[in-house]
Amino acid sequence: MSWTPSREDFDRYMLPNYSPQRVIPVRGEGSRLWDQQGREYIDFAGGIAVNGLGHCHPKLVEALREQSEKVWHLANVYTNEPALRLAKSLVEKTFADRVFLCSSGGEANEAALKLARRYAHDTAGAHKDRIVSFRQSFHGRTFFTVSVGGQPKYSQGFGPVPGGIVHGEYNDLATARELINDDTCAVIVEPMQGEGGVTPATPEFLEGLRQLCDDHAALLIFDEVQCGVGRTGELYAYMRYGVVPDILTSAKALGGGFPIGAMMTTEEIARVFVVGTHGSTYGGNPLGSAVALAAVEEISRPEVLAGVAERSARFRQHLEALNETYGCFREIRGMGLLLGAEFNASFGERGRDVLAASIDEGLMLLVAGPNVLRFAPSLVISPEEIDEGMARLDRALSTLTG
């Protein structure tokens, strides 16, 4: 069948729950993409923090190629070598004793929340079912995870939400203290909110949540789907804070572009997920596990993690310079290579206007709400590509302010 799809075909064949840009990328290498017309773009979006090693990284391509010639998928009544190698690597590199593999961050958080409730049920009783989350948080698109997430727009219109879920203010320990009690089974928090505006947690907030969970025999869940796997300059953000959760969820950059997620926890908590309590058809898929292992091993190299801080500083310098020129940002925040630049009142909610103008200049980036530009590039993007991408952003901003 000889047919070249166009952007208009999205509107014809796909559900209208997305509104993609007009260009269709067809090829990628490192931190650059090319569209159907052969036009080149610098990628500051990273597939929403997914492409931690950029596009078509040689080690990921080789891992996928090798595994594709062996076995692609097995029913979960069997195990496989790539899944076991990946689980072993994650255990050796983190606090965790046990790993559950799945297909996405939403699945990982679903598993974490179910595990927390099951553990509380089995150890304390059915009354201990309260889940504490925080406003502006995002934990996935399943019905359970959008209900736990702190953005009502994602759960409105879908009927009654699950009970036992309450929301406090992020980085406000006083509101958390009011909500966490002896009926709380779990507190779930992003060490850095991504979709909610690229806002890092304060050390005092995470330390306080850890203490409150200990005081009330509740489990602390860190959602590191977006901020994990090298994004902050540590393999996982909890290592940067020195606060160890009971359960950690991971996805996005874990597979470097191949769909995979993981939920990690301790031996004591894992024991309640006996045979039949939870599952995932594609969880531990040999193809995904092989690619994820290659991604984890490459990203965890000291020189890759150390390079994140250097690149982050370069991004910040450019953003500060743009702010001096255009006076457009109220705050530049984030950690490592997950950065947010919030527009001030004079620039307003023009995030999507900037995205469209940037595409015209050959730059791909993100928003986190209508008034925050979000940067989540490859962890190994070159300094020259940062400089060139920021020059393109400069030109885009000039078209909106001239």
TrEMBL record:
Q: Which residues bind N(2)-acetyl-L-ornithine?
A: 141, 280
Q: What does it catalyze?
A: N(2)-acetyl-L-ornithine + 2-oxoglutarate = N-acetyl-L-glutamate 5-semialdehyde + L-glutamate
Question: Which EC numbers does the record give?
Answer: 2.6.1.11
Where is it predominantly found?
cytoplasm
At which residues is N6-(pyridoxal phosphate)lysine found? 252
Cofactor(s) the protein needs: pyridoxal 5'-phosphate
UniProt-listed InterPro entries: Ac/SucOrn_transaminase_bac, AcOrn/SuccOrn_fam, Aminotrans_3, Aminotrans_3_PPA_site, Class-III_PLP-dep_AT, PyrdxlP-dep_Trfase, PyrdxlP-dep_Trfase_major, PyrdxlP-dep_Trfase_small
What keywords appear on the UniProt entry? Amino-acid biosynthesis, Aminotransferase, Arginine biosynthesis, Cytoplasm, Pyridoxal phosphate, Transferase
Q: Which SUPFAM superfamilies match?
A: PLP-dependent transferases (SSF53383)
Chain sites annotated for binding pyridoxal 5'-phosphate = 138, 223-226, 281
Q: In which pathway does it act?
A: Amino-acid biosynthesis; L-arginine biosynthesis; N(2)-acetyl-L-ornithine from L-glutamate: step 4/4
Q: Which domain of life is it from?
A: Bacteria
Q: State how the cofactor is bound.
A: Binds 1 pyridoxal phosphate per subunit.
Entry keyword annotation includes Hydrolase: no
UniProt keyword annotation of Cytoplasm present:
yes
Indicate the enzyme's highest-level EC class: transferase
Question: Listed GO molecular functions?
Answer: transaminase activity
Q: Which compartments is it annotated to reside in?
A: Cytoplasm
Q: What else is known?
A: May also have succinyldiaminopimelate aminotransferase activity, thus carrying out the corresponding step in lysine biosynthesis.
* Complexes and interactors: Homodimer.
Q: Which family does it belong to?
A: Belongs to the class-III pyridoxal-phosphate-dependent aminotransferase family. ArgD subfamily.
What this protein is called in its record is Acetylornithine aminotransferase
Q: From which organism does this entry originate?
A: Kushneria aurantia
Please state the gene responsible for encoding this protein: argD
